[in-house]
Design brief:
The protein is α/β, with parallel strands linked by helices and 336 residues long. It contains five helices and 14 strands. It comes from Buchnera aphidicola.
């Protein structure tokens, strides 16, 4: 199934049914009173979460949704039938945004979320309701009102506890695969990961957490270069970030690569930049021990305020400590 995480749609609630003008015409009652009934209210449009969905692909091609109109009133004081409501189902983590103002309407973050997004029009009133002691034969009614029309953006933000960032080919997908049940695409070329990938990390039978991998960032990503920037919002609800760095670069490039990611995170969103971020230096299995020791020594000397790991995601060396420490961090901060 194609992964779609942002769509623009139009929702239009139903129009209320018109009231009815009618007078009783029964045998032996030549001058019966007014008996025109009310119309029915227009149908509403609701948006509801569905835990079985993980994409907005259902709204990729169908862009307009209409609730049913209320039926007009009838004689004999019969009210018109209310227009049927319709429900639009979205994945947990969907954000609803006003298309015109770009204001966030709400975030649907759990499986029981439901929101009235477009209210149906009010019913029209029949002439029987306007009868009074001074007006026994009212010849007027009210029309049903139009339902709300709204243009909205549905934006899916994946719900995860831990987010993974880094340059292309730093080993993010390999790390995800080594600690979770996820099976991201892995290859020896840039941008192997084309869409976000979620994995569940199981600590034991009762405890687990969710980790998310997004396509690699490059310099200029916050201005639209590469693939990663369009998926950065999927990390907004993470509690902690893992920044994976390729140790195969020379030491100066390693530090430059760290700064590239930090700058792109800061440009995109300061909240994202200020999240707790651990540094994971990957591919220690691909270098001689002497070179590894030299690089580790320099890194530890120059980076003192970040938690640091040295691992081989491919060989699963050092990865156990990462997910154990992550779980402990989440537990201590009451995220789980």
């Amino acid at each position: 199934m194609k992964f779609v995480d942002e769509v623009q749609i139009q929702v239009t609630a139903g129009k209320g049914g018109d009231g009815c003008i009618h007078f009783r015409r029964e045998k032996y009652i030549p001058k019966g009173g007014p008996d025109g009934g009310n119309g029915g209210d227009g149908g509403n449009i609701w948006i509801k979460t569905d835990q079985n969905l993980n994409t907005l692909v259902d709204y990729k091609f169908k862009k307009k949704f209409f609730a049913h109109n209320g039926c007009p009133g009838k004689s004999k004081n019969q009210s018109g039938k209310k227009g049927s409501d319709i429900f639009l189902y979205v994945p947990i983590g969907t954000r609803i945004i006003n298309y015109n103002t770009k204001e966030i309407i709400c975030d649907l973050d759990n499986k029981k979320n439901i929101i009235l997004i477009a209210k149906g029009g009010k019913k029209g009133i029949g002439n029987s309701k306007f009868k009074s002691s001074i007006n026994r034969t009212p010849y007027y009614k009210t029309l049903g009102q139009k339902g709300e029309t709204r243009f909205i953006i549905l934006q899916l933000i994946l719900i995860s506890d831990v987010g993974v960032v880094g340059l292309p080919n730093s080993g993010k997908s390999t790390l995800i695969q080594s600690i979770s049940h996820a099976k991201p695409k892995i290859g020896e070329y840039p941008f192997t990961t084309l869409i976000p990938c979620l994995g569940t990390v199981k600590i034991d039978q009762k405890n687990s957490f969710i980790i998310a991998d997004i396509p690699g960032l490059i310099q200029g990503a916050s201005h639209g270069l590469g693939l990663g920037v369009q998926f950065l919002r999927h990390l907004e609800k993470c509690h902690i970030l893992l920044h994976v760095i390729d140790l195969l670069y020379n030491i100066q490039d390693i530090f430059n690569n760290i700064k590239i990611i930090e700058k792109e995170l800061k440009k995109y969103n300061k909240t994202l930049y200020n999240k707790t971020r651990w540094l994971v230096f990957n591919k220690i299995d691909s270098l001689e021990k002497k070179i590894i020791k030299e690089k580790i020594k320099i890194i530890l000397k120059n980076i003192k305020k970040k938690k640091i790991f040295f691992i081989s995601a491919l060989k699963k060396k050092g990865v156990k400590k990462i997910y154990q420490d992550l779980f402990q961090y989440l537990k201590n901060n009451q995220y789980k």
